[in-house]
Amino acid sequence: ETGVTQSPTHLIKTRGQQVTLRCSSQSGHNTVSWYQQALGQGPQFIFQYYREEENGRGNFPPRFSGLQFPNYSSELNVNALELDDSALYLCASSPAGGTGSYEQYFGPGTRLTVT
Amino acid sequence: GNSVTQMEGPVTLSEEAFLTINCTYTATGYPSLFWYVQYPGEGLQLLLKATKADDKGSNKGFEATYRKETTSFHLEKGSVQVSDSAVYFCALSSNSGYSTLTFGKGTMLLVSP
User: Fold this and answer.
1) What is the tens place of the pLDDT at every residue in B56-88?
2) Could A42 and B42 be called an inter-chain contact, meaning their C-beta atoms sit closer than 8 Å?
3) Could B99 and A44 be called an inter-chain contact, meaning their C-beta atoms sit closer than 8 Å?
4) What was the pLDDT predicted at B112?
């Protein structure tokens, strides 16, 4: 069984640029959540996708957007990058339709640095 | 809203010492509670969970009991190893609506030989 994978591993961007991060969910999982983890902090929920629709959103501005594809993989897009967007971005998948307390399985993350 | 508070680290212990990392939470309803572990340069791994009051989650010698009366979920291990050095996150998941995790800030554990 393949776990959650993310690409790229590391990324360096300049302020004002746009970035796309990718995530492949674990086999059989139809729900993907994205989290931002700033240095020394716990992960913060960005949004969740279920069956290609945004199922919930945390306190992040609209320049953070996402997609989920029919194979349940997902993208996180961030426009107009700011220095504070520098963080580890974590993707997590779960088997249920976004409800209940099903376990979330995390990928290794993408380290984004904005200069 | 939901929130999780963990004891600040780092927690520094010698090998074979007893470990406690405190975690308390604020939530509406009856959340599920989790401990995740993050090793250097890696993502999060689920360590253990409990889904209702008085449940005890356990894994790899770690355990935590869901205490509704004190809104706590403290992590314990009787004898830590150097390989347990990592950052530990307490988290909760609401059982209503869509499921997302609310994390504490994490507690770094350093175990020396």
Assistant:
1) 999 999 999 999 999 999 999 999 999 999 999
2) no
3) no
4) 97
